[in-house]
């Protein structure tokens, strides 16, 4: 049986925390920033948890996590 591979895109975007939650960066922070308010850009800093509805699909892309 061949090894199960991790999706390259998933390993670049997500990290699984010891408690089982998945952390990721915020979306909408890469370009077209001139029309976004300073407040919204500031609130997109840092990391966030992946929504509980999406954790299952993220973990399926990362079988060894």
From TrEMBL:
HAMAP family hit by this protein: Ribosomal_bL35
Region (Disordered): 1-23
Record carries keyword Ribonucleoprotein: yes
Superkingdom classification of source: Bacteria
Keyword Ribosomal protein: yes
UniProt keywords, alphabetically: Ribonucleoprotein, Ribosomal protein
Basic residues compositional bias, start-end: 1-16
Protein known as: Large ribosomal subunit protein bL35
GO MF annotations in UniProt: structural constituent of ribosome
Species of the source: Duganella phyllosphaerae
Family: Belongs to the bacterial ribosomal protein bL35 family.
InterPro entries according to UniProt: Ribosomal_bL35, Ribosomal_bL35-like, Ribosomal_bL35_CS, Ribosomal_bL35_sf
GO biological process, one term: translation
GO CC, one annotated term: cytosolic large ribosomal subunit
Coiled-coil annotated residue ranges, if any: none
Pfam families given in the database record: Ribosomal_L35p (PF01632)
């Amino acid at each position: 049986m061949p090894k199960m591979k991790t999706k390259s895109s998933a390993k670049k975007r997500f990290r699984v925390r010891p408690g089982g939650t998945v952390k990721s960066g915020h979306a909408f922070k890469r370009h077209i920033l001139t029309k976004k308010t300073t407040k919204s850009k500031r609130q997109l800093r840092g990391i966030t948890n992946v929504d509980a509805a999406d954790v299952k699909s993220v973990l399926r892309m990362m079988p060894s996590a």
